[in-house]
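Purpose: get a first structural picture of the assembly so the mutagenesis plan has something to point at.
Setup: two entries, given in the order below. No constraints added.
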Amino acid sequence: MNLRPICRRTLALAVGLLLVGPGLLHATDRLHPKVLAAFREVVAPASKSTTQIYCDGYRAALGAVVDAKGYIVTKSSELKGKVECQFYDGQRREAAIVGRDQGLDLAVLKVDAQDLAVVPWTDTESLPVGSWLATPTISRDPIAIGVVSVGPRKIPAPSGALGIQLDSVDQPARIQEVMDDSAAEKAGLQAGDVILKVNGKTIEGRQQLVETIRGYMPGQKVELLVKRDADELTIHATLGSFSQLVHGDREQFQNTLGGALSERRAGFASVLQHDSVLKPSECGGPIVDLEGKVVGINIARAGRVETFALPASLVREAVKKLVETHLTSASAEKQ
Amino acid sequence: MRSWLAASHRLAACLAIVCAISFFTIAARGADSAAPASAAEIAAANLTRILAGAPPGGIDDLRAMQDRVRKLTDQLMKCTVGVQVGAAQGSGVIISKDGYVLTAAHVAGQPNREVIFILSDGRMLRGKTLGLNRTMDSGLMKIDGVTDLPFAEMGLSDVLKEGQWCLATGHPGGYQSDRAPVLRLGRVLLSDKAAITTDCTLVGGDSGGPLFDMDGKVIGINSRIAGPLTANMHVPVNTFKDTWDRLTKNEAWGHFPGHEPYIGVRGEQGAKDAKIASVVPDSPAAKAGLEAGDIVLKIDGHELTDFASLSEAVRERQPGDRIKLVVKRGEETMELRVKLGKRG
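Result (structure tokens, whole complex):
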């Protein structure tokens, strides 16, 4: 097993790899079934209002029933293809995406139902650091537990970076140099390439390319139309970040030790940080305090030590707007 | 006890109340020793059992655990610091009011380096790295010119039981001004003299931060991780106590795992001097021109008595160090320069 020192940035040379003999035994970790079972009573009410969301047949996210008439909130960026919701009673229904809030990465789904149990929202605004949190699913025990690690704070959206040096002339957007280990290098871009389009948008020159790329976040995939000599090629690049260009992949590597991260994991107005371990496909559902009240919606697996939840008040406000907009447009259609 | 009294007036007041209650309890039980234990006593004993690893039975047990964690949090945050040493960012924990800080050796790097400490209230203080033990990854630092800092007491790392609950703090990703130290709750999975393994998840920047027991005492220092989320290793705090004199005297010793120095010679058994029996091909010794049959007389000016003294002298150095050997080959005496490699 490789052991890695966890100081940030430097001393990559100071400690290398170490082999440990026997596998790690842990009969008593915090996710022991007996510990999860202690939370059964805590998650019972919220699990009745939790849905398992399938996209094209695969488990893509969890969701929370926010209106008895069949409205469900979930994580927007995990949705694709045919969407279905499965409930605590095992019923599986087709769902339509009726609204999205790109800023919070929330989507509201609608299923054909009349009397769904709505999640028990909390009334309290803030939960002290160290409070228990449990993530219900549509089964008896929670899928994860943890504690509040950091109180609510904003997570700014970092801008994406390709890692290229451009020609100083503005037109066209010609690559002068591709930086080592950058997103551009991994995607196969080369010095001399001219970037013509980003996700279908025509790029006139250097400045426009810089602004366009900054509009995306690290981790997002972009499709580039590139002119190389006489050929035009389509190249897919997964954007990196500035910190990655400066510090290399070490930080990113450590953060993915132990599991994948959500593709969209930054750019939130406010999140509660907790230490529950979730897969990206286990985000989108409710998270409850020890009283069983829903204090937020898990919105991202953001690092090895961090999972983010949008606070309940923020979600309720956004959901209200999305449902109202949907109802207004639906009644307008009828007329 | 001293630490709590020093921490703050509020805590001192809490302590007074706790003392008063226990006095009352003792007095009451003294009057009637046959009286059954009170509900509060039963609850306290139950919580102790759970924190030591017994499974919680349900919501009441979870609430008792939560009350304990919430009560500790404020104090744990106050004694957790961010540290910057050169370009490295890590964490540390203040363990005395005059500013001794425990950290990881790989954060400190070397003795006598300038350190900037960032407290949880945003205060930036200056200080220096003191001693470090690379083998254990323990490092000591000292904040300059302070007399009244919040601090955590050192606990015992040799009495830890598999399954007992613990808390880790630190600055994952480095110190961020809009974020307090980050709390994680977990359990001790393995514990021995070399390392404590927990499922308090750690990542870059957490290095040097504290692992606490459920009484808020430091039992370990965050050190390293491997792939699984259950592979978070901490330096046992007892090593700091056992080597306190060396650490405060700015000594640096030991080797980071995988960075043991290597020269590549074998000694002749039974020889009364440092006679080389064989030289490993392509090793640093071979590259420097050392040959079987050579007798090493000196290393960097120090006389060697036997092969063991040569091994010891090499172990005291680091991979990459250049050493000067005085070697006797037949009747000839020559000087050879060797650049040490690393083992494995």
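The longest strand of chain A covers residues 144-155.
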